[in-house]
Amino acid sequence: MKKFFFLFIVVLLVIGTVYSQENLFLRDEFGNPDINGFWNFNDATPFERPKRFGTREFLSSIELEEKIKNTLGAEKARERREADLSDRVIATPTSNPGAYNDFWSDYEDGFLNTRTSIIVFPEDGRIPAIREGVSTQLSPPHANGCNTNNVVSVLRPVRISFGALSCDRPEDFSLASRCLFFPQTTGPYIKANSYNNNIQIVVTNDYVVLYSELGNDPRIIPFGARPGPHNEIDTWTGNSTARWDDDVLVVETKNFSDKLASIFMRMIAIGSAEDMILTEKFTKKGEGALVYEFVISDPGTFESKIHGITHFSRLDGVIYEFACHEGNYAFANILRAARLRELEQNINSGSSKKADI
């Protein structure tokens, strides 16, 4: 009997040790996993799965090694391309000075995602079929920043994240260009951009705050069911509630603005989010990592739900206040440049029409 009891204790200790290695993390003063602090969500995993992978969710060891190699190679190529950038710009006059140097961007994955795509459902890892009549907006090519000759359809309200559907008025520019909202990192779901992929999480007994560096749009979310705004009141970040499901932080959000798309990718915005329900889960993995999951339920836009998984890693540092081209002062010059270009075109074509600048 004593021998059996001893073996039973040993088995419990072994199982407990294995379990604790997976779930070894500090807890806050309320007994929940301590996820307070600064996190980075860099993730080089494609949002949609390349078709060659079919329904396979994870990379093989060889494919993972190739992914890491390609990521490093692309970084080196960007460095080489910019090595003599200033000399080339001076030597060759251009009307387009460009935007961000490569040093602004950070592509290193702190908590490597071995999946073939961020989307894990539908099982092919791709955006599901879109309902008939749903609006899909495209950003114009970078070389045609004002969408001259309407190379992409002009659909309003403008929900794209980048570019402009025309340079006739501010409302035709993308959400990020207008400094209104940064859907690529702020929401509705959190997804890696080329830079500023940082977030601060603050959890109390009553609220959780999700504060993305890009955009200055903190989401202040109460725990438990509380009287919220009327269903007719929609906002950019929606109306959220939080709860703990064992050791998993769950956030559910609805009442998004109809000016927001259901899905954002860099050059496309699909649907409108007013009827969308977003469920997010934050699961701590050790002291330095979080698994972030989102489920988009929008039956008016898509024929099935969308489930995605990405990774956060502890940020060794802090985040700073974000400024969107310093208070959006650049916008007057953007519009003025468009009018000057129109004037130049009118002069070249012999038109007497004057541009209002």
What does this structure look like?
This protein is α+β, with helices and mostly antiparallel strands. The protein contains five helices and 13 strands. Strands 1, 2, 4, 5, 6, 7, 8, 11, 12 and 13 form a ten-stranded antiparallel β-sheet that branches. The termini are far apart. The model is unreliable at 1-21 (pLDDT under 50).
Q: What would the principal axes of the Cα set say about the shape?
A: globular
Uncertain runs with pLDDT below 50, 5 residues or more?
Answer: 1-21
Helical segment count: 5
What percentage of residues falls in helices of 4 or more residues?
Answer: 10-25%
Radius of gyration: 24 Å
> How do the SSEs run, as a string of H and E?
HEHHEEEEEEEEEEEEHH
The largest pleated sheet is described as:
10 strands, antiparallel
Distance between the termini: 94 Å
Report the structural category: alpha+beta
Percent strand equals 15-25%
Number of strands: 13
Average residue pLDDT: 85
